[in-house]
Amino acid sequence: MRAAIVRTFGGPDVVEIAEIPLPEPGRGQVRIKVAAAALNPVDAGVRVGVFGGDGTPLGLGWDVAGTIDAVGEGAADLAVGDEVVGLAYGHRKPLGTHAEYVVIDASAVATAPRSADAVLAATLPLNALAAAQALDLLALEPGDSVLITGAAGALGGYAVQLAYHRGLKVAALASEADEDLVRSLGAQDFVARTATPAQVDGVLDAAVIGAPALEFVRDGGAYAGVIPGAEPEGVRGIRAGAIEVNPDGTRLAELVGLVDEGHLTLRVAQTYPLDQAGVAHGRLAEGGLRGRLVLVP
């Protein structure tokens, strides 16, 4: 089968489509015939060597939407033919979701949305889970105020919608051109990138602004980052932390439910065939995307 891998670190041209053996699911795992897989900034990080490696080929891709075609022992409640979404966690794994088939833990899988096709559904797992888990880390109560940085991006957009659904007062930090977009997602207040927002109870820093974002938080408030270990040190009694995304199938199923109920919007910027994975990496590097790039085997 074909899979996108990197053998050396570098630009989009190092992404290789290789022929590799069909993987077999182990205990508690399922094999998914990939219908679509989103391309995320973390994949670019793997490609350029941010997470290192020991010289063996590394697989690319975390998000997947597709159909289960093999089930390992102990993978309860899942069956061949089930249409699912899932998260293949790992910065240094031999096979990712940018492939024709992928094996992942059954505990990281949920039934696919009924209201969306596979290309749209493939944008959900990583970014929506990250947004939900970052909001958990903030631990705000309904009626509290939250500022989402990078609110027009994939992760930020989910964060805006989830925060609004939780009853938070949502302010969105984005470019002026994205004001209508972020308001349509549920932001009550809009803050241009060049403006200084009023202080809030918490900041979810999807844009990875870091320490300067603490200026937006009231004394004793909270900051949640999305890159583990990169959060700033708290000041003025501010709790500052960052999430390591947890591949949680139960939580993913809840997010799928919010998609089907119309509370979460799935956004695709462009699709590419798997053979053009390197081209897609080049487009990702250009920036300015509103939605995810998605690879289709």
Explain the overall architecture.
This protein folds into 2 domains: about 1-125 and about 265-295, Medium-chain alcohol dehydrogenases, catalytic domain (Quinone Oxidoreductase, Chain A, domain 1); about 125-240, 3-Layer(aba) Sandwich (Rossmann fold). The relative contact order is 0.17. It has helices at about 40-50, 120, 125-140, 155-165, 180-185, 250-260, 275-285, and strands spanning about 1-5, 15-20, 30-40, 60, 65-70, 85, 100-105, 110, 145-150, 170-175, 190, 200-205, 215-225, 240, 270-275, 290-295. By secondary structure, it is an alpha/beta fold. The protein is built from 7 helices and 16 strands. The longest helix is centred in the middle third of the chain and has 14 residues, at about 125-140. Helix 4 (about 155-165) links the parallel strand 9 (about 145-150) and strand 10 (about 170-175). Helix 3 packs across helix 4 (about 155-165). Strands 3, 5, 6, 7, 8, 15 and 16 form a 7-stranded mixed sheet that branches. Strands 11-10-9-12-13-14 form a 6-stranded parallel sheet. The chain has a 3-stranded antiparallel sheet with strand order 2-1-4, covered by helices on one side.
Give a summary of the structure in a few sentences.
The chain has helices at residues 41-48, 118-121, 125-138, 154-165, 179-184, 249-260, 277-286, and strands at 2-6, 15-19, 29-39, 58-59, 63-71, 83-87, 101-105, 109-111, 145-149, 169-174, 189-192, 200-205, 217-225, 239-242, 268-273, 292-296. By secondary structure, the protein is of the alpha/beta class.
